[in-house]
Design brief:
mainly alpha; about 280 residues; globular; about 0% strand; about 80% helix
Length: about 280
Amino acid sequence: MDKTLEQIRKLLLIKGFLGYETILAPVIATFYIKYVGLSFSQYAFLESLLTILIAFFEIPSGYLADRLGRKKLYLISQICYIFSKVIVCMFPSFIVAIACTTIAGVSLSMSSGNLEAVYYEAFATEDKVDDLKRLYGKAASLTFMTSIFTSIIGGYLASIQIALPILVDTTVIAIDVLFTWWLLKEAPGGQKVERFIGNFGLITFKETFGTLFRYKGLILFTLISSLVFATLRVSYTFYQPYMQSSGVELEYFGLVFAGFNIVSAAFSFLNNKLINSFSSEKK
């Protein structure tokens, strides 16, 4: 089992170094508007479609993972995601973009949480869950640090050819898939499948909402937090088209995104210290 944990450690650090779409992220809106030829409203529609699909397929993704195996489902979904990005590069149009976004949305939800479950099972078996939490922290810090540089690279590549960042990013994801296939060993035997539609799911659903309503102000706090997050997430979609229409050169887009990552890295570093200064109730 120690060998399995060591392989997971290597995989998490490799994933932290590679990141996920950190080269494409600084210019993704510009790619769809300038290369694919979409209007801003069409790009916003794709963003909405992607979010809805990811949310909708989260529940059946857990069921499929239990049936097919978490590692297998993750690898299949990532290959489909790569396929969706390559196709939109080859045949840029709004209709193709909708089809590829649909594939991407389903793929991202299918891969969601699968690796984390395998990691947890392996570390929990050896009673080393705290080690896994520290490892997550190291991997996240590594992602923030590397993404500062890859963001700048993404802007530079886009200034040469707008499709280059998406092609390089899909290559990075393909490397990630190969490392996952090589290093990750899933425990033998399937997990017991618990359907959401049934007594177990309904009981859990009722208990969760019962807990929410017992805490004064928690519902209001959740709604306000959700509204703030949604507003910021939508506003975030505007900055790339705004910079583009203002005549900002593409190579500077990466610098802006690198700045976002510097702020994220700083708050990630301070997060534990800030959280530990509050009582459990206030957390």
